[in-house]
Fold these 3 entries.
Entry 1:
Amino acid sequence: MAIYQDKLTPFGAKSEPAFITSGFKNWKKACEKFKAHENSHTHCHAVSVTAQESHPINAQLSSALATQQGDNRHCLEKIVSSIKYLVRQGQALRGHDDDDSNLYQLLKNLAEDDALLAKWLLRSQKEYLSPQIQNEILCSMSNSIVSEIADTIRNLPIFEFAIIMDGTQDISGKEQESICLRYIDSDMKPHEEFIGLYSVSETTGKSLAAVVKDVLLRLNLPMHGLRGQTYDGAANMSGKHAGAQALIKQEQPLALFVHCGAHCTNLIAQKACLASVLIRDALDWVNQLGVLFSQSGKFKAIHAATAHTENPSCTAIKPLCPTRWAVRSKAIRDVLSQYGSVLASLQEMASGASNTASTANGLLGQFRKGKTVLGLILASPVIDELECLSISFQKRTQTIAGMRTAVKVVQTSLKAKRNQESFNTLLKRRWLRVGETPLAGEPRRLEKECSRLERDVEEGSRRLAMAHNEIRHLKDELESAQNWNSPGSSSFSSRIRPSSDPHHPTEKALVSSSNPLLMDDINYPIISVGNLPQEILQQPSWIIAPTTTKKNLNATW
């Protein structure tokens, strides 16, 4: 009681002096007095003050604060782990409403087994779930991953790496450059790591080269370790003088530039498909069919019902990718494997009264033509080969030697298909498939189409030969006309002047005037003299302007 005595008020000291000031003397009634004092207010107050002497109020507040911080740290770890999971799976964090977002719903699911998290979610203010905090957490994760990649490259036994860059526009139209780093670890295993997307104000070679240098500087990767560059074939990227690769090569000559193999394959597929009108039009009809399939729910239902009766494992028909030509083989195979159901669906769709009936009718007319089937048949094996080549180029373990070997294999395979026997075999194999569809008579039509194409080629060759013979005959006549005033030149003169009348207006214009002769007034044949032999043009008495147009013929005799 000595400790408590100094802290009593005068009223408290007088309440029970026997236990506080004067001391207890009535030992006969000690048990009764002790029980009464134990339940008194004075004793309770004394116990409370004594307990506070060992745990001060500031210590109690600090303990409560430490407990709260521990609980908040536990909830923050759950939030970070949830964000990491959603980002790893490529899922959106936020939704139209905060309570319906993927992150909040995932935390509610975790709170069923976590009392602290459940209590924290009941708070009115959830600071760690705001969009700003989420973005900060994502940036911290990104910086940590990129820093780890840069540390790995710097610690390589042989400090060498390559850079891969390509650009595209986002949905807002802003140009974004994606940058990847490629390196080989100590186990000779290649790695291609995505670094990030970087906005550029302009797409010139100088600006793109500055982006590459800035990225390497931020990652603390010296330029002397750069050994390779891979871009597309655009002038601002691969230009020999002002391209990004040329500007980087000025600082690091060992950074060899290699045109992206997959991009080259895509360009080859595009040129090959556009070179043939037959294949180009057939692919365009397939694309329009895919657009109709994706936009019309009625046509989709009709095709599903029609195709299910023939093939339970029918596939949807999708539009062609507008930029990636080497991935169109699947769409072509889907159309060829379901050609009968496609025609039946288009015919049923065209007989309706919907807004897309006219589109379906037009597509039906095109897919009934044999040249459409022929175009798809011819395009399928070529695009298949190029797609396999493109996939091979995109492998992370691909090397320059492997790429060259793959190109030779594809060249050999394509050359083996360029003969009449392979063409006939391809047609027969496709005719069997087409013969099972409503195009029962199409094999004959396809054969006629092939015969017509062959006749067109023969006719073109014959006309070309006739043109060569005519040119040779005209050249012989020009060489034999050495003296233009001699009678021997009559055969050639008859080509220029159809009349022997010396007073003919054409002859008068040629002899007496150097002004242009308007051919609209006189309906005589036009002779092109731009390719006359030099010995004829060097005759002093015969001067002809080298540019002869349809409107005038400048000649001076």
Entry 2:
Amino acid sequence: MQRKLPAAALAGLMTIGFLATPATATPTESATGQPAGTTAECTSANFADNQAGSQYFEHVRWMQCSGITTGYADNTYRKGTDIDRGESMAFVYRYLNEDFTPGEASFPDAPAGSTHFEAIEWGAAEEITTGYEDGTFQPERAVERGEFASFLYRALDPELEATDVSFPDVAESNTHHDAIIWLASEGISTGYKDGNFKAKDPITRGEVAALMSRLDSVINPEEPEAPQDRFDLQAHRGGQGLYTESTPEAFAHALELGVSTLELDTQVTADGAVVVTHDRQITTDDCRDTAPATPEDPQYPYVGKYITDLTLDQVQTLECGYQQDPKYPGQVVVTGPMMELDEVFEVVREYGADEVMLNIETKVEAGAPEETAPRETFVRAVLAEILKHGMEDQVMIQSFDWGALELVEELAPTLPRSALTNGDFLQVGQPGASPWLGGLDADDFDGDLVAMAQELGVEVISPVHGNPQDGAIGDEGYVPYVNQTMVDDAHAAGINVVPWTVDDPGTMEYLMDFGVDGIITDYPDRLRQVMQDRGLDLPQAAG
């Protein structure tokens, strides 16, 4: 029997991609015949390629814990893999927990005993699919977006109401027109930024997990998990309040202490190397010259130069971290050359910190682009290092330069992105668009950070906690930037909020009361204490 769900029951779903169905799994048993829900407790180990904090993590975890998928034999889920027709039908079947006994095979290429036979026969019996004109089902063929729209539409059989929603590439004569318009009108899928739906495009397994879990949360509403239950403790530059910033020792200490994310900054040298440092211009506050990279190097001394104008060999002659930062009186001083990005990856691997995320900032200087590597050069260099070292499942890209985030979406669409802002870079009320916003004009959004983030399509916003940046709740003249409305609006849009850089425990408490999803801090030890006092689960120490 098909389930008739009113269209209103599906309203409010947030769009990430498109609903489809992952691979071989054991169906969840249900005495009620209701859609499978998340189990109260899940003891299965995460898929090897679905670590905490990675894109689609919670959605894939829900699929796994609900018994909808057991993944592949090598314990992977393969979020970026296109899904086939047999898998799609199996996942809809398993999710709905249909009680069905198949008869003779309806399709010669899906005989009795074949993978997904029962689900395919159920789909045929319910007229969710009739196969192809030649009588075949083609279970291993990739599912198209429009095709799966129809699978889902026919399985749920909702009431389609009149709507003004349309896509220029979906004509009324399109076989999947009604299904696609239903998805769009309910907010399940709004198509692409260019306004098209691309019904012939395939669907990935990560997109599937996201939309199936969100569909379930609407059909089977439960009390939502409080953001604090999965609070993201991010060590700013490795925790520069405790160790010299951006050093192997700082990152190692943060891992030993126990953090969920290492936050770090990158710059790109003249010869394309990715180094880990906050400042685009070398200053005596952080580094000092030792010797020229080559005899009589005309660029020497290097202090005062921009990193984009120096080679890696020149940069690595510098002695960095040679003195304590006076802002951090307890900081342990560690001296050495400027790190490369791959060295951070090495530290993470040495500690076996597979569940720790790296929040990597591309520090493109949109306000003075000549002072950093060109945006595309910068982004491509960082992404190349991530992919070269197989770290894509543990990485998020953040940037104040939202144009860089748009380029990341184009070049590496599975990487999660975080939109940084200090508020001022939005340039609200000023003529024209800010150079920091990737072509968006804040005034077109009434200065609403969340609305702009929705347009940008990011998973996280990372605003300054307040001004002045080194201020705290209770200080005279301190003005908070993050507020309850911002957090509520972001969560309603499916966007996490992770303010920076918060070192005062009272301000941490203030922000956590709003329900922020994480905090970037120079003092991960302080934030751990606040989390412990609030009864939150602490990130495990690595090593």
Entry 3:
Amino acid sequence: MKTFCRGILSTPKLQKISYEGMEVENKGNDLNKAIQGLYKKKNQDISLDLKLLTLKDVNSTKICYNRHPTSFYQNLTHLILWKCGNIKYVFPSSIAKSLHQLQQLKIQNCKVLEEIVAKEGASAVVDFVFPNITLLKLEDLPKLTVFYPGIYTLEMPKLKELEVRYCTKYLSFTENNAETECATLDPKSIFLNNVINFNLEVFKLYDGVTNICWQSQFETLRIDKDTSTNIPLRLLQRFENVRELRLVSNQYKDIKSPYDLLNLEDLYVYFHNRLTSLVPFLVFSQNLKVLTVSSCNRLMKLITPLVAKSLVQLRELSISSCEMLTEIVEIEGDATNTGIAFDNLSKLSLKHLESLTCFCSRNYSINFPSLEEVIINECPNMKTFSQGTLSTPKLHNVKYHWKWVDTGENNLNTIIQQKHKNEVGSFWKKMTLSGRDIMTILQGEFQENFVEIETLQLIKDDYAYIPIHIFKKFINLEKLILKVSSYEEIFSNKEGEEHVETLSKLKDLILQGLSNLNCIWKQNFQFKSILQNLHSLNVTYCDSLMTLLPPSSTFKSLTILAVKHCNGMQNLMTSSTAKSLIVQSYGKDFHPHGSKLHTRMMSLPSLTKSVQHGQQIGAKRLQYIVSRLEVEIDVIFLTGGYNVIQ
């Protein structure tokens, strides 16, 4: 097209003209003259010093670089592609190798773009060097798979900002099949396998779920919603100078580092429901000053004596909302060293830790020479701070359950013991026993009966099952909570029949954090009516439990069943148990509407597979919401037929 028309032309409001990917302003209100100039510019051998090229809403399938010699583009500093709906690549390799002055490359919202650089011929290894590029931004490129389809090397020594968003095929947040090995964040393009600047000022990756952000100004690395089993080690290696690391809502089972993070000072770990231990990571963080952990409900191990020894620079320790954490410093086996020192710790905060019984349960001497502030809020089962000698020479005030307490002549142990005793007295129908307390009752040291207790909580019991006869002192027990204990089964045949009636009034049973639990009772258990009056059963974080309700069990009163975060759960119940829920509620001629069992389920990956294979509980209305991480069943109406799981 050489001109627009031969006659008189008037376009008083026309401001811009886009012609074959080139944009100009309509100066002089002469469209014919503008098009003639653009045609001449396109077809002549131009030696124009082109520095900025912006292509927007281009409908052609490729950019016609061959209209000009390669030298035409050698001074290009900025290249922007936006909403080019049919373009499949940005430039051929011959053009890419000439862009030595390129400083910024932005490609956004190009829906069919498959590669940045297209392959030309059957070349072996292609070397791409962009010596001056400082910014690379790729956004909303759903078809992008590779930077270059062949074998290549890439150098961007001056790159300062790298941002990749909504390029789901380009980014590969992959998890190694062997969960014992470390997963890697492995974008297939340029980010970890090629030579780019290690001193990036801004680094952002977002695939629609996982978000990774590095800010050099604050030396902060944040990783959100990574579905890998382990933290991406190669990413940590690239940002080894990280000062602050924030991990939020990831699926890591543990966090480890094979090398020292010498610059890491602040570590924040939030909302990690699969995380069980921080020990492997903290050992390599000897310069850590601030450690904050919150809402890690599977976390059972935080600090060991070895970790405490390495955290010589720790100033602040804040732990909150970790349901399974029973103590802060855990000592396993027969440790030879009997002393721990936190030389620089000045602030300790423990909040909303339902299972916490103490800071350290062993008879260790603990020294806090710099500790000035202690905050303990909503830790209802914390009866003392430590069992051994405690030294806090600079501690004068303790904030206990939102109120400041002057220590005076009392040490931290005395304050917590007194406050806990006062609070327990105000909740006289509820009692919590830890392993040491349970042993005392079993040995007969308590002669009194606890007839007023209606709710009993057992924490950190090392027995393989519950000795039923312990409940003969709790004849009015209605609610039993079992947390973070070593039970392999709840009830055993080793108990005598005379103790079975002790749980006749039990209405609510909560099982939480019983990682060794295989069953509530075994098939040969003789007293299957022991829970016949149970109204609700709540089970969380019991990963070894495969079938929830035992076979041939009587649960005729059960109306609420909640199961969450049990990775090994395969079957909800056996057919005989399902029959008992129906027949024993209504007899053989049960009501046509059936019994109503309110069921809530979440994060049961093994059960999800059973449901997807078509096995289901016979139901009038059964609503499944199934995803990789969650199964939720709102209400089960048990009616005719007993086609149940298992």
